[in-house]
Amino acid sequence: MMTMEEQEVKAVRIFFTGVGGQGTLLATRMVGEAALEEGLPVSMSEIHGMAQRGGVVESSAVIGDAFSPTIADGEADILMAFEPLEALRALPKCHAGSLIVSSIVPVVPFTVAVGQSTYPELTLLHDSIKERVADLIWLDAVELARNAGSERASNTVLVGVLAGTGRLPISKQSWEAALKKTLPARLLKINGQAFEAGYVFGSEGR
User: Fold this and answer.
1) Residue 12's closest CA among 122, 106, 95, 105?
2) What CATH number does the domain located at 4-140+168-183 have?
3) How many CB atoms are closer than 10 A to CB 6?
4) What is the pLDDT of residues 70-129, one digit of tens each?
5) Nearest to 126 by CA among 136, 134, 140
6) What is the pTM of this model?
C-alpha cells in the first residue's frame, strides 16, 4: 500500500457513467466512503444529467491530493460504465493508460425501442473501446448480480470488480465497511454477495 505522502502526490480520477435506475450515484458513494475508511482524501462531484430511468447519469470521485472532483477530457484514470454505449460515449474522458470497467448489458434508449435508431453491436462497442485504453474489463454485471441474489445489485458488482483489480490503495476491509455505511441493513447480505462476486472477477476471473 502506498504511503500517505505518495497518495498526496498522485490523485486517481474515477469517472462514473450510466443511466437512471442503475445506482450510479450509490456506487460513487461506495467508492468515496471506502477511500475515507482507508484515511485517504477524496472529493466527489454532484450528479449530472437526469436521474429518472433512461436519462444519462454521470459523476466523479477523485482520490488523493486534488483541489476539485471535476474530471476534464483525457483525465480519467478509471472509467466505471454501467451501460456499454455510455462507456463509448464517455471515452473522451479517458487517456491511453486508463482502465475501463463496463457492464455489457444494454439499456435500450427510447429511440431504439420505437425503431428510430439501432443499438450498436456489442462486439463493435467492445473493439472501439478496447483500442483506445490500456485495460478494459467487459462483463455481464447483471448476471453476476442475479447469481448473487438480485440483479439490482449490479452496481455493487462493478464496485467489487474495481476493488478486486487492486488499482486503488484501499483494503478489502475498508471496502466492506463502506458497504455497511452506504446501504440499509436489509440490503447488506445480497450486496455483500454481489460485491464478493465482482471482487473475485476483478482479481481472478479475467
Assistant:
1) 95
2) 3.40.920.10
3) 12
4) 899 999 999 999 999 999 999 999 999 999 999 999 987 655 566 767 888 999 999 999
5) 136
6) 0.89
